[in-house]
Design brief:
The protein is an all-alpha fold. Helices cover 78% and strands 0% of the residues. The protein has one domain. It is elongated, with a radius of gyration of 17 Å. Keywords: Membrane, Transmembrane, Transmembrane helix.
């Protein structure tokens, strides 16, 4: 694994600690210690879950991406796209419902959709690159 990927894995592992602290915040929300309406509770849960899953998925991709038939921008997208989505998507969930008793998400919901587009592009690139790398190794 290239050194920059090892460093990124270390950063992602440390980022999981912030997700862990977000879990503590969620326990306060569901116990009623932090005021939140149903929309906020749903979006907070979704943001928390997406953050954790995407960080772990990022680590899994980095473990194998050196076997992909990719270079340059495409290798960068396959390696960094999911970690970028792990920032954008939860940010969209959390930031779009901040405030007192919002009834619908605000404009920052676009962060979620931008993150989803980046995630899709990264997964397709990584998948195709890994298949091509595997076929070439046969």
């Amino acid at each position: 694994m290239p050194a920059q990927d090892v460093i990124l894995v270390g950063i992602l592992l440390l980022a999981l600690v912030t997700v862990e602290s977000g879990g503590y915040f969620l326990t306060k929300v569901v116990r009623g210690n932090v005021p939140a309406n149903r929309l906020q509770m749903s979006f907070f849960r979704a943001g928390h879950a997406h953050a954790a899953v995407l960080l772990v998925l990022s680590i899994a991709i980095l473990a194998v991406i050196s076997n992909a038939a990719l270079d340059g921008f495409w290798l960068w997208l396959a390696s960094a796209g999911v970690p970028v989505a792990a920032i954008l998507m939860p940010a969209g969930f959390f930031l779009s419902v901040i405030g007192s008793d919002p009834q619908r998400p605000n404009r920052l919901i676009w962060l979620l959709w931008i993150g989803a587009a980046v995630l899709t592009a990264a997964l397709i690139t990584a998948g195709v690159g890994l298949i091509a790398g595997g076929v070439a190794a046969l």
